Amino acid sequence: MTTTTGTTAVTGAVGAAHTRLEGRDKVTGAARYAGEIPFAELAHGWLVLSTIARGRVRSVESAPVLAMPGVLTVLHHGNAPRVDGSYAGMLGRPDPIVEVFQHDRVPYVGWPVALVVAETSEQAREAAEALVVQYDEEPHDIAFFADRPGTYTPENSPAAQAETEKGDIEAELAASAVVVDAAYTTPEEHHSSLEPHAATARWDSGRLDVVDSNQGSMWVADELAKLFSLDPASVRVRSEHVGGAFGSKGVRPHQILAVMATTVLHRPVRVVLTRRQMFSLVGYRSPTAQRVRLGADTDGRLRAFDHQAQSLTSTVHEFIERSADMGRVMYDADAHHTVNRVVPLDVPTPTWMRAPGEAPGSFALESALDELAEKIGMDPIALRARNEPDAGPVSGLPFSSRNVLACFQEGARRFGWADRDPRPGTRREGRWLLGTGTAAATYSSGVVPSTAAVTAETDGTFTVRITAADVGTGARTALALIAADALEVEPGRIRIQIADSDFGPAMIAGGSMGTRSWGWAIMAAARELREQLVLGGDIPPQGITARSDTGAAVSALAKKERHSFGAQFAEVAVDVTSGEVRVRRMLGIFAAGRIVNPLTARSQFIGGMTWGLSMALHEEAIRDQASGGHVGADFAGYHFAANADVPLIEADWVDDPDADDPVGIKGIGEIGIVGAAAAIANAVWHATGVRHRDLPIRPDRVLLAGTRPAGERDA
Amino acid sequence: MREFGYQRVFDVPGAVARLGADPDARYLGGGTNLVDLMKAGVERPALLIDVRELPLDGIETTDDGGLRIGATVTNSDLAAHPEVRRRYPALAQAVLAGASGQLRNMATVGGNLLQRTRCGYFADLAKPCNKRVPGSGCPAIEGEHHNHAILGASEHCVAIHPSDMGVALAAFDAVISYETADGPGELPLAEFYLPVGDTPHLETALPSGALITGVTLPPTPVAAVSRYRKVRERASYAFAIGSIAAALDVQDGVVREVRLALGAVASRPWRAQEAERVLTGGPASADAFAAAADAELAAAKTLPHNGYKVTLMRNLVVAMLTELTEEAAR
Questions:
Q1: Distance CA A490, CA A236 (A)
Q2: Under 8 Å CB-to-CB from A340, ≥6 apart: which residues?
Q3: Residue B18: which domain range?
Q4: pLDDT recorded at residue A2
Q5: What percent of chain A has pLDDT over 70?
Q6: For residue B125, is it within any domain?
Q7: Is residue A637 domain-resident?
Q8: CB pairs below 8 Å between A and B: how many?
Q9: B242/A578 Cβ within 8 A
């Protein structure tokens, strides 16, 4: 038959609300996740983690465990297959946790020391819990605090400058009429994806086949090939449905151990992490200690800007939480200094977690801006407008677009900001003191070369294949809408297949870059396909396929400051006699490029804002100095917001299409969380007159801090 | 997970006999705590004896006008019962302040009394804990203890009892009934939980193998004006960092009768007897409430990170008694 992309052009899918394509499968339970897909002859691996924080494994006493019912093998550093971790993957050098069971050193509590594989998951668990591991223990050090010994400034690289500096900070501070100099802390926080990490590996006709839950199947396949010295074409990784990832679902020990075990046992092996294991195996957000110094004239113009951030990393890998980066985009000053320092401790390596850098950085920076506004006696939004830069404060590059003030204007209008009495501690409703606060948000907008294939089928439908990942965001649906508009057909004629490394290289779901990178590749392939179809002729049984690679187009992009922006607003109620803080409403207005699917985009913004609320009031992983490990590493001990904590949250956006993107996308994955905690902390100050500079704003902290009468300056 | 047996029982003597025959057996109520502890390896019973089908799920008014609550009554049914809501409102409020709807549908009154502390060290086999492994030490004292005891603790254990329901029961002089192979017995709640001392692993005075059959509340007219308030680190689905059950009878500005019990401050629901003594017969004023709280909390021993609880409990006592005074005046 002859087909065209449509006798009458149909567009407008992008920008119209559309429910998730897989929504019915998910709510009915028909959607299968990695840990529940059946395989014949499946064996189950259970991890055993170190209980010491530093030292060596002296012995793994496997013999008694091997005699237990159903146990097939015990893998450990003495018998595991060899892997080579000396490679650079898509995101650089891997965390050496990928070199699992390659040596006897233990660098922290929760380091994998053995994998017990058995016929059933229950047998594997019972045996793993019975396994005795002997250690030679060494003293450990996990104490993180500001300016602690061992803290250093990492090397600058062109991609990521550790430190930026212009002008004379001390001189400008001295010349400033108003100065804020404040220290802030944020605690260790965890991704806590609802679905635990799970992978099944098997050898199938000479190919390694891995069914996984990840953020990028090509990313995982590439690293597994490198680790096991395999031909990349002989590795296939799939990840159909993912129950949350947030930066934690890359290559982690469970996939590597499943591959090791299936290689040894010649049958499929599944490894699923427990919630407690996730607290030490999948990365986390480092605690931070930050100092912000701002110097301004009485009209609010910034003369001095100094943001110094400190995070921790493990002793085996350097990961930097880039909390001081936000000021490089947001605010200029005559003297400008930002630095991200780090200290290695006997703890697991942190990793990217939703809005890495900006999430903790915005708490400190946007709190400090509020403190400056208070000291000057200026409205916090007016202060930000006063310091709106014309170009990148550090780079000097022009902004692709910068609509942060439009967000503040629209947000202020809808929130009722104009009626706000700026004095703190003056509104009471029963035992509750009421306050409102605001903060700015930003996150970088990027794109990474990707490939896609679009096939015109004989039945008039189109099949899109791309190694995208839908980590719960609705990416699958968004990409179908993009494809529909590109081909000018109804979305119902698009069939989309994602999350299979056989589809070729593509960006991961990360850095707010997934949908933009994939959408671009789909646009390019669709355009190519339409050119082929214009020639006319029959569609052969296998269809007509066009492929794209956006490498050249992406690298041709002009160098600019490319970012999403936003404005966060919050109203809180605080009972200083009990320490309880309740958020009453939140509003976020974003300028984040063209919104592909308003339904799922709103969910993503609201999800980020809810996480910001959780970060402000609840989330905090506790480490025990004596053992070096966590206390209460589960959802009973690690609190995040419950439904009852989450009030009316509204998210909306202003028109902000990116002129340099074929769809107009900027990316929305991270920005919802940025600034949300600061808006709440600023509202708590407005309610009580007390600045809370340490997260979370726990009842004990609120109770002990009490209130400060209006007019009395906070120390 | 260790393999275990499971048996459902249908009569109380049969249940007691079955448990008595197997020292490694446990009664299973709603399982909302025991099953979690089994997953964590803290509890490793060889046999679970499911008592949920026992004929102990009724709530009845006693001859003297009190209330008898069967041991297998679920938290949801207890909180919804009209007589509980009318005569002991603090009890219904306390139950509803705990857990989630799903958990309350499963959890039983007997199990609630016997639930274990949520101290993070107790539930973690990799760490010492005198309650789990006697003599192994208490890392909470030097470590994480911001939700640990300020009253009645010892150098061996500073864990708190997590129950909300128990706090209200303590305020109303509840009596626990149980059955053993040797026959039935009773324990007032005040004697039900053992002092911590150097034996934190011994938690209750129940005889070995005993099955809780019910809880009796004596007639308590003052309880009709009672309230429960819980402070926690999020709005729902979290254990208390401080809670209070209170009942107050004020006439002509004088405290005729008062009941006060505090939660999340000790290894058991803490009846504030000293505060009650100071208040009774005195003025119903904010100063008197504060003085009573101070009298009760004079015995508090704090650790570096739980001292806020003294302020919190003082504030809760004053706020709660003030509210009840205002309510009585209406």
A1: 32
A2: A153, A154, A162, A163, A309, A310, A311, A320, A321, A322, A323, A324, A325, A357
A3: 5-50
A4: 45
A5: 98
A6: no
A7: no
A8: 93
A9: yes
